Structure formats: C-alpha cells, structure tokens
Amino acid sequence: MAERKLKIATTSLAGCFGCHMSFLDIDEKLMLLNDRIEFNRSPLTDIKQCSPSDIGLIEGGVCNADNVRVLREFRANCTILIAVGACAITGGVPAMRNYFDLRECLEEVYLNGTGVTNPQIPSDTELPLLLDKVYPVQEVVKIDYFLPGCPPSADAFLQLLVPQLDGQKPQLAADQLHYD
Amino acid sequence: MTNEANKAIDANSITIDGETVPFDAGQTIMDAALAVKIYIPHLCHYPGLTPAGNCRLCMVEANGKSVAACVTQAQSGQQVSSNTPELNAARLSITQMLFVEGNHICPSCEKSGNCRLQAMGYYLGMLEEHFHQFNPRREIDASHSTVLLDRDRCILCDLCVRASRDVDKKNVFAIAGRGIHARLIVNTASGKLGDSNIEAKDLAAKICPVGAILIRERSFDSPVAERIYDRQSISDTAMTEHVPRKEDDRG
Ligand code: SF4
C-alpha cells in the first residue's frame, strides 16, 4: 500500500511571501518531497479553507483580525504548527509600526503623507480591522517549532521538514540559525 | 571533580568545567578563562576596559556560588562551572530579555551580521524571544555628522561609556537613571552627540556590540555571508578582542 502522504498547509499573514519563495527554492528536491507530501490550504494550491493537516507553516506576524482568524483555523487543524521566518516569530519588519500609535500610522499614510489625494482613512466592512500592534504568532496560538530567518534558506526548510516525514523531531543545524 | 583534577590544582590555578586553568594574581575568572581560550559568554566585557558586571551573561558557579566571571577574582583551588545546561538556559533567558527590551529587528538593522547580541542568540540557539516585546520609543540622535545614536537598540552594556572615558579620554557618554529608567545620555549641555567631540575613529564609536552607535555611511558595507558572524561564532571572535594597545594602529 502506498504510504500516506503528509498533509501540509501554509499561509502568509503579515509577511512578504519571501518565506514561501524560499521554500520553493528547494528546487528539484520539491519533486522528492512531492512523493511524500501533499498541500492543503496554501497560496500554492489556492485552497481557501484549512482541513485537518499534519503540518502547518505560518509565514508573517499577526497584524489584523483576519490574521488572528486564519492563525486559529490553522492551529485547530494542524497537528504540528511551525512559525516560519522573522515576521512570524518576532513580528519582523511590519512590527516597526509598533513604535507608533496605530492612529499615527494611519494618519501618516492616508491623510498627511506625501502625494496623498482625497485623504481619508479607509473604513469598509470588507477590510480586516488592524490590531493595535503587530504580534508574533506565538503570542496568539501555541507554536510547536520555530524556523528563524528572513527568509530561512531552502536548506533550512528541508532540515525542518525531512525528519518529520519519518516522524522525527527536526533540529536546525547551527549554521542555519539566522535572524536575517 | 575527579581526584586527578584535584591533584592538578596548584597554588595559582582554578578549574573551569573540570579543566585546570592557571592564573596570575589579580586576574578575574574571565581573564584566566580567556587566557587559555575558554569561552565564557559575555556582552558587556571587553578586554582592556575595566569590567562592569552589567550584562550577567558571564554568571558562573564558583565553589557553588553564582558570580559574574568578569568581576570576580580567581582564587586558588576555585572550582568553576560555566558551560552547563542550567547556566546556558539562564543565559538564553537573559539574551531574550535583552532582545525584547529594545527594538531589535534584525532584518532591518545595519548591524545585522556584525552584532554581538545577535551572535549571542546564535551561540545559545535562541529560536524565539519568548517574552513580550516592550516596543520602546527612545530618542534617536542624528545630530552628529559621522556617528549615529539609535537608543532603541542600546542594551546598556556601558562599553561606550568606559571606552570614551578611559581610552578616548573624552567622556562623551553616561548611563543615567536606574533600573527600567536607565538610559544612555550624551554629556553635552544640549545632550546631543553633534555638540560632543566624538569622532568616528574613537573606540567609543566602534565598540557598541549592537546597532545603537553606528558610523554613518558605512552601513551594509559587507554583503550577507561575508559579515563577521556569518563566518565565525562569538565564541571565536571573543578570543581576539582587546582594546587597541599603544603600539597598535588606532585606524
Ligand atoms: S550604546 Fe552600545 S556600547 Fe553604549 S551602552 Fe548602549 S549598547 Fe552599550
């Protein structure tokens, strides 16, 4: 009987998709992985709803109410949840807005900034509400593993995933530990 | 400790993690360790400057008592443990606290790759910051033409204070306030760096372990993969650090 494929879900919250790009950078090894894994909800599949999965990869920190909803959906569905990249783990570059009040940021961008025409702060039920600050994902849900880096290298992704194919705990090599 | 190790201790030696280490009278545990290339983690210590015992990363157990290795004199027969899981766990927590107390966003920091706080995180295997971030908002001083002070990243190690006072003989910096109110100040009437006589060649301008004091227009000089801690561990670079000696080119 063919081995059951490991189900992996991925998402980008307040991130730049750099971590996803780096993940795809594992090049031909993606083909090797392809025999052992399948993707669930992910920007790579366009599946919109997360169903039960073995591993969830979270890129990006938590900056708005929708990020919180998606993160909780992942936690509820993924056996192992992994924070991937500087933004997920520390808030990263988006968290640079944490040194200002949210109102200051909105006013700077939408009212007083250079080149603003028709100044108004957007407010629409379609738009997710911004949180007061950008939070690391582990401040919202329990995270099982962390993969630092901005982004983590393709090799770091492999070091994280390959052992888990055989039910082993991943261990990041010292030379793969980077915060940038 | 084994009997053999016991025998090896003579009048002027201590043991560090079971290894016999000689010392000269007046040397600290840190001095003795560095002399034989044993690494005890530290951020606020820099050989050649008077030790301050600020950062607490060099806490070791000497005869069962917790002491800061950089300010504790070596004493004959002292049995020191340093590289233990317990002490390294405490050092990791200290490092995480230093990260969350300031604004240390490595991907956007000019010092990234050359930062000793970051390198300490790597050395201790820090994967996340654990504690809630403070997100402080402290004053940036961009008043000087060649030296920039970004207080958000200052870890209050006091190295610039000592370097400026004792080596550069300019006394540009001081730490004011205590505890959570402690902050780095500039000793000028205006409090601005631009009104001080600091120069980019001064030790105080170069010694900052983090990206708080930066030489302007030198940021991102070396590409990723060629920066100090892309190639070396802080446990290696610590072995060659020393305040420039008289005969050295101060460059
Ligand atoms: S500015 Fe740098 S050298 Fe000075 S106390 Fe702060 S961290 Fe230390």
Automatic annotation (TrEMBL), chain A:
Domain NADH:ubiquinone oxidoreductase-like 20kDa subunit, by residue range, is 16-162
Organism the protein comes from: Nitrosomonas marina
In terms of InterPro entries, this protein maps to: Hydrogenase_assoc-protein (IPR051349), NADH_UbQ_OxRdtase-like_20kDa (IPR006137), NiFe_Hase_small_N_sf (IPR037024)
In terms of PANTHER family, this protein maps to: COENZYME F420-REDUCING HYDROGENASE, GAMMA SUBUNIT, HYDROGENASE SMALL SUBUNIT
- Cofactor(s) demanded: [3Fe-4S] cluster
Provide the protein name.
NAD-reducing hydrogenase small subunit
Q: Which keywords appear in this protein's UniProt record, sorted alphabetically?
A: 3Fe-4S, Iron, Iron-sulfur, Metal-binding, Oxidoreductase
Q: Which GO terms describe its molecular function?
A: 3 iron, 4 sulfur cluster binding; oxidoreductase activity
TrEMBL record, chain B:
Would you name any one GO CC term? membrane
Q: Which residues form the 2Fe-2S ferredoxin-type domain?
A: 12-86
**Chain segments annotated as transmembrane:** none
Determine if Transferase is one of this entry's keywords: no
One GO molecular function term?
NADH dehydrogenase (ubiquinone) activity
**Pfam families linked:** Fer2_4 (PF13510), Fer4_15 (PF13459), NADH-G_4Fe-4S_3 (PF10588)
- Extract one GO BP annotation from the record: ATP synthesis coupled electron transport
Pinpoint the 4Fe-4S His(Cys)3-ligated-type domain residues.
Answer: 86-125
Cross-referenced InterPro entries:
2Fe-2S_ferredoxin-like_sf, 2Fe-2S_ferredoxin-type, NAD-red_Hydgase_HoxS_gsu, NADH_UbQ_OxRdtase_75kDa_su_CS, NADH_UbQ_OxRdtase_Gsu_4Fe4S-bd
The residues the entry assigns to the signal sequence are: none
Q: Give the top-rank taxon of the lineage listed in the UniProt record for this protein.
A: Bacteria
Q: Which family is this protein grouped under? A: Belongs to the complex I 75 kDa subunit family.
Q: Indicate what this protein is called per its UniProt record.
A: [NiFe] hydrogenase diaphorase moiety small subunit
The scientific name of the source species is: Nitrosomonas marina
